[in-house]
Amino acid sequence: MDLEKKAENGDSIAQYKLGRRYYFGEKGFEKDYEKAFYWYRKAADQGLREAQYNIGAFYGKGLIVKKDYKIALSLYEKSAAQDFIDAQFQLGLYHVLGWGTKVDNVKSVYWYTKAAKQGHPLAQRSLGFMLCIEVHSGLEKDCETAAYWIKKSADQGNLDSQCNLGICYEKGWGVSQDVEESVYWYKMSAKQGLAQAQYNLAACYLDGRGVIQNFEKAMYWAQELANQNKDEALKAEFAPIAKQLADNEEAIVKELNDIQGKAVDLGGYYEPNEALINNVMRPSETFNAILR
Predict the structure, then answer these.
(1) What is the reported pTM?
(2) Are residues 170 and 142 in the same domain?
Protein backbone atom coordinates (compact mmCIF):
# COMPACT_ATOMS: atom_id res chain seq x y z
CA MET A 1 0.00 0.00 0.00
CA ASP A 2 1.46 3.37 -0.98
CA LEU A 3 2.01 6.23 1.46
CA GLU A 4 -1.00 8.30 0.39
CA LYS A 5 -3.35 5.32 0.72
CA LYS A 6 -2.03 4.55 4.20
CA ALA A 7 -2.48 8.20 5.19
CA GLU A 8 -6.05 8.24 3.89
CA ASN A 9 -6.74 5.06 5.89
CA GLY A 10 -5.70 6.84 9.11
CA ASP A 11 -2.10 5.72 9.58
CA SER A 12 -0.62 8.57 11.67
CA ILE A 13 2.99 7.81 10.67
CA ALA A 14 2.02 7.86 6.99
CA GLN A 15 0.14 11.12 7.53
CA TYR A 16 3.19 12.65 9.14
CA LYS A 17 5.53 11.44 6.39
CA LEU A 18 3.17 12.75 3.73
CA GLY A 19 3.08 16.11 5.50
CA ARG A 20 6.89 16.22 5.46
CA ARG A 21 7.01 15.51 1.75
CA TYR A 22 4.63 18.35 1.02
CA TYR A 23 6.40 20.67 3.46
CA PHE A 24 9.89 20.13 2.04
CA GLY A 25 8.87 19.29 -1.53
CA GLU A 26 10.79 16.03 -1.51
CA LYS A 27 10.56 12.60 -3.16
CA GLY A 28 8.56 13.78 -6.15
CA PHE A 29 6.11 15.98 -4.22
CA GLU A 30 5.79 19.70 -4.94
CA LYS A 31 6.16 21.96 -1.91
CA ASP A 32 2.67 22.76 -0.62
CA TYR A 33 2.32 24.17 2.90
CA GLU A 34 -1.45 23.84 2.94
CA LYS A 35 -1.32 20.12 2.18
CA ALA A 36 1.54 19.73 4.64
CA PHE A 37 -0.55 21.41 7.33
CA TYR A 38 -3.55 19.21 6.48
CA TRP A 39 -1.64 15.95 6.93
CA TYR A 40 0.36 17.12 9.93
CA ARG A 41 -2.95 18.12 11.52
CA LYS A 42 -4.39 14.66 10.86
CA ALA A 43 -1.39 13.03 12.55
CA ALA A 44 -1.35 15.54 15.41
CA ASP A 45 -5.01 14.86 16.16
CA GLN A 46 -4.02 11.24 16.71
CA GLY A 47 -1.38 12.31 19.22
CA LEU A 48 1.78 11.93 17.15
CA ARG A 49 4.33 14.10 18.95
CA GLU A 50 6.35 15.11 15.89
CA ALA A 51 3.19 16.26 14.10
CA GLN A 52 2.00 18.17 17.19
CA TYR A 53 5.33 19.98 17.20
CA ASN A 54 5.12 20.82 13.50
CA ILE A 55 1.58 22.18 13.74
CA GLY A 56 2.77 24.24 16.70
CA ALA A 57 5.53 25.64 14.49
CA PHE A 58 2.95 26.67 11.86
CA TYR A 59 1.10 28.72 14.49
CA GLY A 60 4.29 30.02 16.11
CA LYS A 61 5.59 31.32 12.78
CA GLY A 62 2.24 32.36 11.34
CA LEU A 63 2.83 30.12 8.34
CA ILE A 64 -0.42 29.95 6.25
CA VAL A 65 -2.34 30.45 9.51
CA LYS A 66 -2.69 33.47 11.77
CA LYS A 67 0.19 33.62 14.23
CA ASP A 68 -1.07 32.43 17.60
CA TYR A 69 1.47 31.78 20.34
CA LYS A 70 -1.14 30.34 22.69
CA ILE A 71 -2.14 27.62 20.24
CA ALA A 72 1.53 26.95 19.48
CA LEU A 73 2.28 26.71 23.20
CA SER A 74 -0.54 24.23 23.73
CA LEU A 75 0.71 21.99 20.92
CA TYR A 76 4.30 22.18 22.12
CA GLU A 77 3.12 21.15 25.60
CA LYS A 78 1.41 18.06 24.19
CA SER A 79 4.51 17.16 22.20
CA ALA A 80 6.92 17.87 25.06
CA ALA A 81 4.84 15.72 27.41
CA GLN A 82 5.81 12.85 25.11
CA ASP A 83 9.47 13.80 25.58
CA PHE A 84 9.97 15.39 22.15
CA ILE A 85 13.22 17.33 22.45
CA ASP A 86 12.48 20.19 20.06
CA ALA A 87 9.14 20.89 21.74
CA GLN A 88 10.87 20.99 25.12
CA PHE A 89 13.31 23.56 23.78
CA GLN A 90 10.47 25.68 22.38
CA LEU A 91 8.70 25.65 25.75
CA GLY A 92 11.89 26.93 27.36
CA LEU A 93 12.00 29.71 24.76
CA TYR A 94 8.30 30.60 25.06
CA HIS A 95 8.45 30.87 28.86
CA VAL A 96 11.56 33.07 28.88
CA LEU A 97 10.12 35.39 26.20
CA GLY A 98 6.54 35.34 27.44
CA TRP A 99 5.08 34.06 24.18
CA GLY A 100 1.54 32.80 24.72
CA THR A 101 2.05 32.93 28.49
CA LYS A 102 3.58 35.14 31.17
CA VAL A 103 7.34 35.21 31.54
CA ASP A 104 8.42 32.42 33.86
CA ASN A 105 12.16 31.86 34.00
CA VAL A 106 11.84 28.93 36.41
CA LYS A 107 9.62 27.06 33.93
CA SER A 108 11.99 28.04 31.15
CA VAL A 109 14.91 26.46 32.99
CA TYR A 110 12.79 23.36 33.65
CA TRP A 111 12.08 22.80 29.97
CA TYR A 112 15.54 23.80 28.79
CA THR A 113 16.96 21.25 31.25
CA LYS A 114 14.67 18.55 29.83
CA ALA A 115 15.94 19.26 26.33
CA ALA A 116 19.55 19.74 27.44
CA LYS A 117 19.63 16.30 29.02
CA GLN A 118 18.66 14.89 25.64
CA GLY A 119 21.58 16.73 24.04
CA HIS A 120 19.92 19.83 22.54
CA PRO A 121 22.85 22.28 22.05
CA LEU A 122 20.68 25.42 22.02
CA ALA A 123 18.95 24.38 25.25
CA GLN A 124 22.35 23.72 26.82
CA ARG A 125 23.57 27.13 25.66
CA SER A 126 20.43 28.86 26.96
CA LEU A 127 20.74 27.23 30.38
CA GLY A 128 24.32 28.39 30.72
CA PHE A 129 23.41 31.91 29.69
CA MET A 130 20.44 32.20 32.07
CA LEU A 131 22.20 30.69 35.09
CA CYS A 132 25.52 32.52 34.91
CA ILE A 133 26.40 34.71 31.93
CA GLU A 134 23.34 36.92 32.42
CA VAL A 135 21.36 35.66 35.39
CA HIS A 136 17.60 36.02 34.80
CA SER A 137 15.14 37.21 37.45
CA GLY A 138 13.82 34.56 39.79
CA LEU A 139 16.90 32.38 39.33
CA GLU A 140 19.87 31.82 41.60
CA LYS A 141 23.28 32.23 40.03
CA ASP A 142 24.78 28.78 39.46
CA CYS A 143 27.90 29.08 37.34
CA GLU A 144 29.06 25.54 38.02
CA THR A 145 25.90 24.08 36.47
CA ALA A 146 26.01 26.72 33.75
CA ALA A 147 29.60 25.89 32.80
CA TYR A 148 28.70 22.20 32.62
CA TRP A 149 25.95 22.82 30.07
CA ILE A 150 27.92 25.46 28.15
CA LYS A 151 30.76 22.94 27.74
CA LYS A 152 28.29 20.32 26.46
CA SER A 153 26.98 22.79 23.89
CA ALA A 154 30.44 24.07 22.94
CA ASP A 155 31.62 20.51 22.32
CA GLN A 156 28.79 20.19 19.80
CA GLY A 157 30.12 23.20 17.92
CA ASN A 158 27.75 25.94 19.11
CA LEU A 159 29.59 29.22 18.48
CA ASP A 160 27.86 31.21 21.23
CA SER A 161 28.66 28.50 23.77
CA GLN A 162 32.29 28.34 22.69
CA CYS A 163 32.54 32.09 23.28
CA ASN A 164 30.66 31.86 26.60
CA LEU A 165 32.92 29.02 27.73
CA GLY A 166 35.85 31.32 27.02
CA ILE A 167 34.22 33.92 29.27
CA CYS A 168 33.77 31.30 32.02
CA TYR A 169 37.45 30.37 31.89
CA GLU A 170 38.57 34.00 31.74
CA LYS A 171 36.52 35.00 34.78
CA GLY A 172 36.63 31.70 36.67
CA TRP A 173 32.87 31.26 36.53
CA GLY A 174 32.03 27.66 37.43
CA VAL A 175 35.52 26.49 36.41
CA SER A 176 39.08 27.12 37.56
CA GLN A 177 40.24 30.40 36.06
CA ASP A 178 42.45 29.72 33.06
CA VAL A 179 43.03 32.60 30.67
CA GLU A 180 44.93 30.44 28.20
CA GLU A 181 41.96 28.07 27.99
CA SER A 182 39.66 31.07 27.50
CA VAL A 183 41.73 32.14 24.49
CA TYR A 184 41.42 28.62 23.05
CA TRP A 185 37.63 28.79 23.11
CA TYR A 186 37.54 32.37 21.81
CA LYS A 187 39.64 31.21 18.86
CA MET A 188 37.31 28.27 18.18
CA SER A 189 34.36 30.61 17.91
CA ALA A 190 36.11 33.59 16.30
CA LYS A 191 37.50 31.52 13.44
CA GLN A 192 33.92 30.57 12.55
CA GLY A 193 32.82 34.19 12.45
CA LEU A 194 31.18 35.01 15.80
CA ALA A 195 31.65 38.75 16.32
CA GLN A 196 31.66 38.65 20.13
CA ALA A 197 34.41 36.01 20.11
CA GLN A 198 36.42 38.07 17.63
CA TYR A 199 36.02 41.07 19.93
CA ASN A 200 37.17 39.09 22.99
CA LEU A 201 40.11 37.60 21.11
CA ALA A 202 41.22 40.97 19.74
CA ALA A 203 41.08 42.36 23.28
CA CYS A 204 43.25 39.47 24.53
CA TYR A 205 45.94 40.19 21.95
CA LEU A 206 45.67 43.92 22.51
CA ASP A 207 46.38 43.77 26.24
CA GLY A 208 48.23 40.43 26.50
CA ARG A 209 45.49 38.62 28.41
CA GLY A 210 46.13 34.85 28.20
CA VAL A 211 48.58 35.37 25.34
CA ILE A 212 51.70 37.39 24.65
CA GLN A 213 50.66 40.82 23.44
CA ASN A 214 50.78 40.58 19.65
CA PHE A 215 50.26 43.53 17.36
CA GLU A 216 49.78 41.57 14.14
CA LYS A 217 47.16 39.25 15.64
CA ALA A 218 45.41 42.08 17.41
CA MET A 219 45.20 44.00 14.15
CA TYR A 220 43.99 40.91 12.26
CA TRP A 221 41.07 40.28 14.61
CA ALA A 222 40.26 43.97 14.90
CA GLN A 223 40.00 44.13 11.11
CA GLU A 224 37.91 40.95 11.00
CA LEU A 225 35.57 42.55 13.50
CA ALA A 226 35.49 45.82 11.61
CA ASN A 227 34.64 44.01 8.35
CA GLN A 228 31.78 41.86 9.70
CA ASN A 229 28.16 43.05 9.56
CA LYS A 230 26.45 40.77 12.07
CA ASP A 231 27.08 42.97 15.11
CA GLU A 232 27.02 46.65 14.25
CA ALA A 233 27.79 47.83 17.80
CA LEU A 234 31.04 45.85 18.01
CA LYS A 235 31.90 46.87 14.45
CA ALA A 236 31.51 50.54 15.36
CA GLU A 237 33.72 50.11 18.44
CA PHE A 238 36.58 48.29 16.73
CA ALA A 239 36.55 49.91 13.28
CA PRO A 240 38.49 53.01 14.47
CA ILE A 241 40.95 50.83 16.43
CA ALA A 242 41.57 48.67 13.36
CA LYS A 243 42.18 51.80 11.27
CA GLN A 244 44.59 53.30 13.81
CA LEU A 245 46.52 50.04 14.05
CA ALA A 246 46.81 49.85 10.26
CA ASP A 247 47.79 53.52 9.93
CA ASN A 248 50.48 53.21 12.61
CA GLU A 249 51.75 49.73 11.74
CA GLU A 250 55.25 50.85 10.74
CA ALA A 251 55.80 52.87 13.91
CA ILE A 252 54.46 50.14 16.17
CA VAL A 253 56.57 47.40 14.57
CA LYS A 254 59.69 49.59 14.91
CA GLU A 255 59.01 50.22 18.60
CA LEU A 256 58.47 46.50 19.20
CA ASN A 257 61.69 45.60 17.38
CA ASP A 258 63.79 48.28 19.08
CA ILE A 259 63.30 46.69 22.51
CA GLN A 260 64.49 43.27 21.36
CA GLY A 261 67.78 42.02 22.83
CA LYS A 262 68.06 44.69 25.51
CA ALA A 263 68.47 43.98 29.21
CA VAL A 264 65.49 45.05 31.30
CA ASP A 265 64.87 45.53 35.01
CA LEU A 266 62.05 43.31 36.35
CA GLY A 267 62.63 44.21 40.00
CA GLY A 268 63.92 40.75 40.90
CA TYR A 269 64.09 37.17 39.63
CA TYR A 270 61.98 35.15 42.06
CA GLU A 271 59.52 37.91 42.89
CA PRO A 272 59.54 40.34 39.95
CA ASN A 273 57.66 43.62 40.04
CA GLU A 274 54.34 43.25 38.19
CA ALA A 275 54.29 46.88 37.03
CA LEU A 276 57.78 46.55 35.54
CA ILE A 277 56.73 43.32 33.80
CA ASN A 278 53.72 45.05 32.27
CA ASN A 279 55.91 47.85 30.96
CA VAL A 280 58.31 45.38 29.38
CA MET A 281 55.51 43.36 27.81
CA ARG A 282 53.97 46.52 26.32
CA PRO A 283 56.96 48.40 24.92
CA SER A 284 55.18 50.29 22.11
CA GLU A 285 53.93 53.69 23.22
CA THR A 286 52.06 54.13 19.93
CA PHE A 287 50.28 50.80 20.45
CA ASN A 288 49.49 51.63 24.09
CA ALA A 289 48.12 55.05 23.15
CA ILE A 290 45.65 53.47 20.70
CA LEU A 291 44.41 51.15 23.44
CA ARG A 292 43.81 54.08 25.74
Answers:
(1) 0.82
(2) yes
